[in-house]
Write a structure and sequence with these properties.
251 residues; membrane; transmembrane
Length: 251
């Protein structure tokens, strides 16, 4: 025990080692401080040169751990990229073209309903089901392209099978999904505009302002039409049910 304490003291301080060697009964002990310095020098030389067993024990495990961590990072990046759906450039290009086509396709219908509401051909054009069939087919096509195994779980993410905003936001991060939703809105908005136009013709109500709003903000245009219709009906009741000529409303 005494020898161990002496060796530890010698390793910690050269002055203590000199005082110990000055004692007669301990002069046989080697100079441990010099051995420690020589050992430290050999360890540093071997570590810097990368040779020897000491260097191999120190350096090789560190390099091995580093390669493992790098391989793990590469595998994690590959897994993340594989989990994210990649869209083919051709599909995105098709979605962009259908988006532009659908937008330009509905504009003439709103134009004739606003500029020529009394024309016979306008009413026949608006009553036709052709535009809704075209938009429905295009929407179904984009819906098939944008469909993925995560579509239904994102749409009905709630435990009550109701949509939730985070799920819908994630679903609309896809270009194909946004394009299909845009065609969906175009078809619904045009149908609502047609109903406003035909209701205006039937009850002799001004609809041009409501149709303009319906083209841009469909729910606002619907509310405007309901308010306009209520105001006209109140006016007619106040004037003994008199129905003004519809041509006067558009003059």
């Amino acid at each position: 025990m005494a020898l161990w304490l002496c060796s530890q003291s010698a390793l910690c301080s050269p002055q203590i080692s000199d005082s110990i060697k000055s004692q007669a009964h301990l002069r046989w002990m080697p100079d441990l401080s010099k051995q420690k310095v020589a050992f430290d020098n050999r360890w540093l030389n071997n570590l810097s040169s990368g040779n020897g067993q000491l260097a191999g024990e120190r350096v090789r495990p560190m390099a091995f751990n580093g390669s493992n961590s790098m391989s793990k990072m590469k595998r994690s990046r590959t897994a993340v990229s594989a989990s994210m759906p990649s869209l083919a450039p051709a599909a995105v290009q098709v979605a962009s073209r259908l988006f532009t086509f659908g937008t330009a396709f509905v504009v003439p219908f709103y134009t004739v309903m606003i500029l020529a509401p009394h024309a016979t051909w306008t009413k026949k054009l608006v009553e036709s089901s052709v535009p809704y069939v075209v938009l429905g087919v295009l929407y179904a096509y984009l819906l098939i392209l944008s469909w993925s195994p995560d579509t239904l779980p994102l749409m009905f993410a709630s435990k009550y099978w109701l949509p939730e905003l985070p799920g819908i936001t994630r679903m609309f991060s896809s270009t194909l999904t946004v394009a299909s939703a845009w065609l969906h809105l175009l078809a619904v908005d045009l149908f609502a505009g047609r109903q406003i136009y035909l209701d205006g013709l039937q009850h002799a109500i001004e609809t041009r302002h409501s149709l303009t709003l319906c083209l841009l903000f469909c729910p606002v245009g619907m509310v405007t039409h309901f308010i306009t219709k209520a105001m006209v009906q109140l006016y007619r009741k106040a004037n003994s049910g008199e129905i003004p000529d519809i041509a006067e409303l558009y003059s």
